[in-house]
Design brief:
By secondary structure, this protein is of the alpha/beta class. The protein has 22 helices and 28 strands. Strand 15 and strand 16 form a beta hairpin. The longest helix has 20 residues. It is globular, with a radius of gyration of 25 Å. The two termini are about 35 Å apart.
Length: about 650
């Protein structure tokens, strides 16, 4: 008998001793980080409101209780009783019964009403029918991504359970090493923006954090071939942790499965969905530009299948000696500061991913409240000594001025923006500005993936800023559904119609003008002196966006990705700072300043060379801590 089987037998005996005599435990299994308890008495379990919480606290495990399949009521009978329990205002759109696990997935427009206060309605459902309810939100804007991910995971339930059981046994295996040390190896994004990738190692465990591309530098993959990463085999990795879905952090996650990785990916639920959207688009853009894709769509599906979603604040075992906790990073939907607690109090490391420290219209500011952090790996995109952004109010005022000026000239405003995060922030600003009369009413056209990304935002309002979430939850005032927003879904023909029409605002990908629909818009609008191209986000070195920002006016406009076809830009070019999803220099310093206790060491990464060195030097002088501006392929040993 393996050590895991012995452990499960011991847990079954301990649970049996802790619960009332009239409740049976027929089986206990690990599924990923969770302990799943099967019982023939699910209704009695549900009647004991605090029993699961007490067991979880005593055993220090995340516990799910499921009924044995042979004690379940028939789905038709259960459906009727469930609908009697759930308030009609919850807007239930689907019930999906899974007899193999005893779960019923309830899709509803208002999941909170299905859950009830402190889970009271969920317990009532189990008391009535025995099935274990799982609740998901019906997207207010139809999302093909959310729909496809949900139906794919439903189709792959059996294989996914096998994956989770395998992962669970790996997490709870017996520790084999007596040594104690912690190492971080940098595989990318050091003294550069993008290509984020790190290895966190202990004698027992090896974890990859992020695996992204480098904007404007085709084919620059993180240094995955080194022995610390995949050089000793893809399955030498115990886990992958994805901080957020932007391609400079996620683009090469599916590549891992091409190399043979078959372990878990820990991320938030919206990050999983957005990763699917962005990586599939990444393949589509590569094909359109005649580049060989680094992996196939099948590997994207494998990545989604291996995702284990975690919620903010949940402390989760991901290895025998590592616990992971995600905290809101304030950057994009589902973005997470990733806190690793290593060993039995041995060491604590936090990876910021990308952060925005103060509140925005879209998100609450990044969390930096941890019990302990000895080493912080901190993004430095705007870490340079002069990287101070204008505040939000001034930024919005300048954007309104740019729009009003272009409108008065009879022109259009073209804004390159990331589909995820920046676009939704701008939508909120524009919706309010038109509603309050600060700018004229005019169409706002969304091109590229923006409408789909917005639909995903409305699926997960619990990840949005408190006030915005409440508007969507309670007031039926979803600003993303405002009449002026138009999804460009007619391709080149619709773009031509918009270009031939009157004043309007166009939000289009890509945010750094590296391809996609923005190139079509430049062909249509570039020669118009009355129109304005407005940058609202960071333009990385080597990108066309940075070149235009620096004054280039000869722009490549080839339709097929080839060279030689150029156009002289006549559009006005404006830059409006302050809409970045990244903290500026002050925000990064404040993130560190207000940590209590502060970390002993900070690794400044994900910034141009001058930015990481400036921030590293400043943190050292201001806070008397050890700071580093590492290069790629450096290893730091702690302990």
């Amino acid at each position: 008998m393996s050590s895991v089987d012995r452990q499960l037998d011991d847990l079954k005996a301990e649970i049996t001793s802790e619960i009332p005599d009239d409740i049976t435990v027929s089986d206990v299994k690990y599924e990923g980080p969770e302990l799943v308890v099967y019982t023939r008495d699910p209704k009695k379990f549900a009647q004991q409101g605090d029993l699961i919480r007490q067991l979880a606290s005593k055993l220090r495990k995340r516990i799910t209780v499921r009924p044995d399949p042979d004690v379940l009521s028939h789905p038709d009978e259960a459906r009727e009783k469930i609908m009697d329990v759930i308030p009609e205002d919850a807007g239930v759109t689907d019930l999906d019964f899974h007899a193999d696990t005893g779960e019923v997935v309830i899709e509803a427009q208002k999941p909170g009403m299905v859950i009830g206060r402190h889970g009271s309605t969920l317990r009532e459902i189990t008391q009535e029918v025995g099935w274990t309810p799982e609740v998901v939100r019906t997207p207010p804007i139809e999302s093909s991504t959310v729909s496809n991910v949900r139906s794919f995971l439903k189709q792959e339930r059996d294989e996914r359970r096998d994956i989770l059981e395998k992962v669970g046994r790996q997490i709870h295996r017996e520790e084999m090493q007596d040594d104690e040390w912690v190492r971080i190896t940098t595989l990318g994004c050091c003294r550069e923006v993008g290509r984020a990738s790190f290895i966190l190692s202990t004698p027992e465990t090896r974890i990859l954090i992020d695996c992204g591309d480098k904007p404007g530098a085709e084919g620059e993959v993180p240094y995955l071939q080194v022995p610390e990463a995949l050089g000793s085999g893809a399955n030498s990795l115990d886990a992958v942790v994805l901080t957020h879905a932007h391609l400079d952090h996620s683009a090469f996650i599916p590549l891992l499965f091409k190399y043979g990785y078959d372990g878990p990916i820990y991320c938030t639920e919206p990050t999983r969905d957005l990763m699917g959207l962005l990586t599939l688009d990444y393949l589509d853009v590569a094909a359109k530009e005649g580049r060989a894709p680094p992996y196939e769509s099948e590997q994207v599906r494998e990545a989604i299948k291996h995702c284990i979603p975690l919620e903010y604040g949940d402390v989760t075992d991901i290895a025998p000696d590592v616990k992971l906790t995600f905290h809101n990073a304030g950057h994009i939907l589902g973005s997470a500061v990733s806190h690793f607690h290593i060993g039995d109090g041995l060491y604590n490391v936090a990876f910021s991913g990308d952060i925005h420290y103060s509140d925005t219209r879209l998100f609450n500011g990044a969390v930096n409240d941890f019990p302990r952090v000895e080493t912080l790996v901190l993004e430095s995109t705007y870490g340079g000594r002069n990287d101070y952004q204008t505040d939000q109010e001034d930024s919005e005022r300048k954007l309104k001025e740019v729009i009003n000026t272009a409108h008065d000239r009879g022109g259009k405003v073209l804004i390159p923006a990331f589909a995820v995060g920046r676009s939704q922030e701008l939508m909120l600003v524009l919706e309010e500005a038109m509603r309050e009369g600060d700018i004229p009413e005019m169409p706002v056209h969304l091109d590229g993936m923006m409408w789909e990304a917005t639909a995903i935002h409305t699926t997960y309002p619990e990840y949005l800023r408190d006030e915005l979430r409440d508007r969507i939850f309670h007031d039926d005032e979803n600003p993303f559904l405002a009449d002026q927003f138009n999804h460009i879904d007619g391709g080149e023909e619709e773009r031509q119609e918009v270009a031939d029409g009157g004043p309007c605002i166009i939000l289009s990908t890509s945010g750094m003008v590296t391809g996609g629909p923005i190139m079509s818009w430049l062909r249509h609008l570039g020669p118009e002196e009355e129109s304005t191209l407005t940058f609202v986000g960071y333009q990385a070195q080597g990108t066309l966006g940075r070149r235009i920002q620096n004054g280039w006016d000869e722009i490549p406009v080839s339709r097929d990705g080839g060279r030689g076809n150029t156009m002289t830009m006549q559009m006005h070019v404006e830059t409006v700072d302050g809409f970045s999803g990244h903290a500026d220099r002050q925000g990064l310093e404040n993130f560190v300043r207000t940590m209590n206790p502060r970390p002993e060491k900070v690794l400044c990464v994900h910034g141009d060379e001058s930015s990481v060195q400036d921030l590293s030097s400043s943190l050292y002088h201001d806070f008397n801590m050890r700071t580093f501006a590492p290069k790629n392929l450096e290893t730091f040993r702690f302990k």
